[in-house]
Design goal:
The chain is built from three helices and no strands. With about 90 residues, it is an all-alpha fold.
Length: about 90
């Protein structure tokens, strides 16, 4: 597969190979594609979490995030931290 690249992309890839970050242009492109795929998968996971959160809100499965909530949360975190220090 031959894919023409814009000059600044080709220059960046060549520089990465030149400085030893990648052994070849192919390796640099494969790494870039792997990063894009991972990012896409992260976005899909976040969208699914958002969808479930919206369903929970619509169904009333929520906890008010008032000062009392954060006070309880802070106490729980402190208790866990204290336990780990033992």
């Amino acid at each position: 597969m031959n894919i023409p690249l814009k000059k600044h992309h080709a220059d960046w890839i060549a520089e990465q190979v030149r400085v030893g970050r990648y052994a070849s242009e192919t390796e640099a492109i494969e790494d870039a594609l792997a990063a894009m795929i991972a990012d896409d998968e992260d976005v899909l996971r976040l969208r699914e979490k958002l969808r479930r959160s919206e369903e929970d809100i619509a169904a009333g499965r929520v906890v008010p995030a008032d000062d009392a909530f954060f006070d309880r949360l802070h106490k729980r975190v402190e208790a866990i931290a204290a336990e780990k220090r033992k």
